Amino acid sequence: IEVDPFDLVVFGATGDLAYRKLLPALYHRDLDGQLPEDARILACSRRDMSDAEYRARAAEAVREHVSDIEEPALSRFLERLSYLAVDASGERGWEDLAAALEDRPEVIRAFYLAVSPDFFGAICERIGRHGLASDTARIVIEKPIGKDGQSARALNAAIGAVFREDQIFRIDHYLGKETVQNLMALRFANALFEPLWNAAHIDHVQITVAEALGVEGRAGYYDTAGAMRDMLQNHILQLLCLVAMEPPESMDADSVRDEKLKVLKALRPMDPAMVERATVRGQYRAGASAGGAVPGYLEELDDPGSQTETFVALKAEIANWRWANVPFYLRTGKRLADRVSEIVVQFRPIPHSIFEEEAGPISSNRLVIRLQPDEGVRMQIMIKDPGPGGMRLRQVPLDMSFAEAFRVRNPDAYERLLMDVIRGNQTLFMRRDEVEAAWAWVDPILEAWAHLREPPKGYTSGTWGPSAAIALIERDGRTWFEDL
Ligand code: BG6
To answer: What InterPro entries is this protein classified in (predicted)?
Structure first.
């Protein structure tokens, strides 16, 4: 279905995010007929460039990231693009931008800040000063939103001085992933799970977001962030919220976000002793990946003194009735053995077995929601081994691979999220109080780490992280699932 006409202004239009994600996503939406005839995309960045030059670069970027380009569709898409040199934190180009937008103040106007957060405040102030924050305007920002609670509040205040909260779209691209949305479908469109979705029936939850790549070309940013700020504070806590929240009244943005906020507020705060006991920081050393030998983080960074973590594992608890004493084991890291993200819900053992010992052990049910690489849902159940040999039990997966079930292209998260911005649907975007509540839980952990001054534990590239992360869960008589 077509969205309403819009002007999309992209700051940072010559950056990695624009080339790698935004342009390919917009091309796909255009190809599928979702962009109206007169939708315009205004690309802005600091350097001087003509429309034709920018279109040539954009074409290159789309070709690089999309297979099976349809040439007429690509040409039509490129026609929508125009380029303006605008200095995000200076005065140059702003009059031109105002002039370019002036002819149709009534259409939806979206500003996408695909730039470093250092520029968010300056850009918002200029948007306000030049009278560009029309009633139909909205602004889209990317994480990291701050580096702690205080800086997040300052950033939110600077943006809030120009835009109303219902105009602000804080992207967490994990919320745009198909399987993440499926988590809500699974929980709330099936009768099967919800009655069991609590401490009485669930033993624990694991959330793993493992990457095989290292920091690639982003070491400069990454070294100031680390795995906690880059992944856990946002993506992983958002996943945790969707697993743990109460059923919202509806899919309305505030109903969903109110419930997520309650989960964040119920996270048990960690004191320094808990931080020592229940968190592990790691940093990759040289090792091997699928492509061969790879250097360690410190060599890549060329700074032997960096204590930034490229891996974090921790045990979180949600202090409410539904989740009392159900640990949520969270972990994420770079240069791990595989690229795999999944949520594992481990159910409790059956209360009593009627089977003889020869039947073999009975494994507890496990629900695995896999986000990537191959998206799907799998339920581990016990069955009888076929054949006349008596009652022998075996664990088998009830498997639902989305790629096999639906033979359609899996859209990128940005496609969904960009169209939601135009539609004005904030359900899959983070509200200000959510971001601040997530920092309120993360800040004491970061502070305790800074206080402890313990260097991150080294792990060999291509493994599952430091052995301390394995000990973290095995101490509780449990184990990470890597076999699925
Ligand atoms: C980004 C992080 O938000 O997410 C990156 O900044 C990370 O460090 C990326 O690599 C992972 O996203 P995805 O969609 O590839 O899992």
So the answer is: G6P_DH, G6P_DH_AS, G6P_DH_C, G6P_DH_NAD-bd, NAD(P)-bd_dom_sf
